[in-house]
Amino acid sequence: QVQLVESGGGLVQPGGSLRLSCAASGFTLDYYAIGWFRQAPGKQRELVAGISMGSITYTDSVKGRFTISRDNAKNTLDLQMNNLSPDDTAVYYCYVPGAWGRGTQVTVST
Q1: Helix, strand, or coil (residue 58)
Q2: d(Cα 110, Cα 106) in Å, to the nearest integer?
Q3: Chunked in runs of 10, what are the mean pLDDT values of the chain (110 residues)?
Q4: First to last CA, the chain
Q5: How far apart are CA 103 and CA 101, in angstroms?
Q6: Per-residue confidence (pLDDT) for residue 2, from 0 to 100
Q7: Which of 1, 50, 65, 92 has the most other CB atoms within 10 Å of its CB?
Q8: pLDDT of residue 32
Q9: CA dist., res. 27 & res. 67, Å (int)
Q10: SS (HEC) of the chain
């Protein structure tokens, strides 16, 4: 059974950092296109960062601040988020084709 479980969200002040992690089970992440999406209240879900065929992509608003990485030994997908702003507030989801995690809330606020 394919399962994705996110962790690492929380409340952080502007300029702070968080590290999200997505634990995969039931399959091996190494063989899939994978990514992090986010959905803010009232907005559509958007791709934040993804890995596919060895290439990494970021949405423009997070370039230089966020880093996506995959740990094949642990079968996890991480998202290091630095210099966070209130605009980054959203539920963050881990995704592989055909499966979504339940999401983890990230709130950036004073």
Answers
A1: strand
A2: 13
A3: 94 98 89 91 96 93 97 94 98 94 97
A4: 40
A5: 5
A6: 87
A7: 92
A8: 77
A9: 23
A10: CCEEEEECCEEECCCCCEEEEEEEECCCHHHCCEEEEEECCCCCCEEEEEEECCEEEECHHHCCCEEEEEECCCCEEEEEECCCCHHHCEEEEEEECCEECCCEEEEECC
